[in-house]
Amino acid sequence: MDTNLHFTLPTEVFSGRGCVAKQAQRWMLGRHALIVTGKTSARLSGALDDVCACLDARQIPYVTYEGISANPDETQVYAGAAVARTRGCDFVIAIGGGSVLDAAKSIAWVVASDVPREAFFNGVPATDPVLPIVAIPLTCGTGSEVTQYSIITDHEAKTKKNVSSAAFFPTIALLDAHYLTSLPKDVLCDTALDALSHAIEGIYSLKADCFSRALAETAIGVLMPELVRMAHGTFVNLAQLQYGSMVAGMVIAQTGTGLVHAMGYPLTYYKGMPHGRANGVLLAGYLTFMQATCASLTERILAAAGLSMPEELQALVDTLLDIQGCFREAPTEEELEVFTGDSLRLEVVRRYRTLPSPEEVKDLYRMGF
Ligand SMILES: [Fe+2]
What we know:
Blueprint: E1 12-15, H1 19-22, E2 33-37, H2 41-44, H3 47-57, E3 62-65, H4 74-87, E4 91-96, H5 98-113, E5 133-137, E6 149-154, E7 159-164, E8 172-175, H6 185-204, H7 210-232, H8 238-255, H9 259-271, H10 275-291, H11 295-305, H12 310-323, H13 333-345, H14 358-367
Helix pairs in contact: 4-5, 6-7, 6-8, 6-10, 7-8, 7-11, 7-12, 9-10, 9-13, 10-12, 13-14
The structure holds fe (ii) ion.
Fe (ii) ion (FE2) binds next to helix 6.
C-alpha cells in the first residue's frame, strides 16, 4: 500500500447532545457576532435559541441574517456582508444546511477582505483574510462544517461555482444530532445521498490516498445502513448520519468532488432538483461506469456499502425517492446536450483517470432516470 499522504483539517470538531452550550467558551471567537441562518430550521431546531443564550450569557452582541435560501447566489452573500459591516461583526456563526454554511464562509471573506462584487468569482487570493467561522450543521449531507468550500450559484455561468480557500475551514464545528429531529424526511434523505456521493467520488479521485480512502470507506459503512433503514421506514440514527456526513466532508476536503457533482449541478440549476437527490440518481450509473476502469476501487466501495453490484444501489435510491413521492422528470435530448456540455466544462471532472466522452455522460444521465 502506498502510504504517502497529504491530510489537512484545521477545524476543531465537537459533537454530542448539548455541545453548543458545553463548548460555549471555545466558540466566542470575537466581540460581535454575525449569525447566518436560512429561513426556518435554525429556529425550529432550537439551535438559534441555544446560540443566542450562550452569547447573551457572555454579553457578546450579535445580529442575525436569516436570508439564505437553497443554492445561494452572491446577492445573498453581499446582503449578509452588508449586515455584518453595519454592525462591525468580527466573527460569523453559521447555523443551517450546506447553503447556509457555504454562504457564511463567503460572507466572512467578503467582509474581512472587502471583496468587490465583480471579483467574487475570480478566486480567493491565498493572502486574503477571512473572519473566523463557527459552523453548526442542521443537515447531514454537506460536510461543509469541515471543508474549505463555499458553493455559490453563478447565474451568469448558469451553474454552481466552488469558491474556496484554506482560510474557509471553520475554526470550530459543533454537531448536535438532536437538532436534526425537526428535519423533514425528504431533506434527511437527500442530504444523506449527498454525503454518500462525497465518499464515493472521493475514493476515485486522483487526489485520494490511503487515509482519505479509509475515511471514505468508514463514511460509506456508516451511511448505508441508515439509508437502508430509511428505505424500510424504520428508525434512523441521526447521530450516525451526522457522523457519516462529517467524515465524508473530511474526505472531500482532501479530494474534492467529481463527475457526479459536475453532472448534478445542471439538474439542480435547470430542473430544480435538490443537490443530494441529483447526485443520488446518478450514483449507481457512475459506479457502473467506473467499474470498467477502476475495478478494485469499485469493489472496495461495494464492500463498504454491503452491496454486490451497482444495480442494488440504484434499487435503493429508487425506493428512497418513491417513498418520498419524488417524481423524476427525465431530461429531454436537448437538455442532455446542455447538461453534458456544462458538466464537462467543470474542472472537477478532470480529477479522475477516466474522462467520459459526451456520449457516455449522456448515457449516465439516462441511467439515472
Ligand atoms: Fe455535495
